[in-house]
Please model this.
Amino acid sequence: QVQLVESGGGLVQPGGSLRLSCATSGFTFSSHTLRWHRRAPGKERELVAAISSDGVNTNYADSVKGRFTISRDNAKNTMYLQMNSLKPEDTAVYYCGTVVRDLGYWGQGTQVTVAS
Model:
């Protein structure tokens, strides 16, 4: 079955960095677009970044452009989100997701807290 498992979250000070990972299994990783979303307390889930199946095309929410970088390693079936210059407003649960055969799949999420 399709599985996505996020890791790498934690507590970091403003201005710090974190690298999230999304390990996957159960589908042909190299054939699917992948996405990072986040949900902050009291807010709806929002798209943070997306990456095409070959890793060539990426797009980002305006709020993270220039600070976050999405990448993938198709040999390891893993996607990453490098987050730099973190701000308190980046505090959220971060989820990786994909669509396989018209069904959406998400991981359990990893908490990122940016606070001094």
Remarks:
- The longest strand covers residues 92-100.
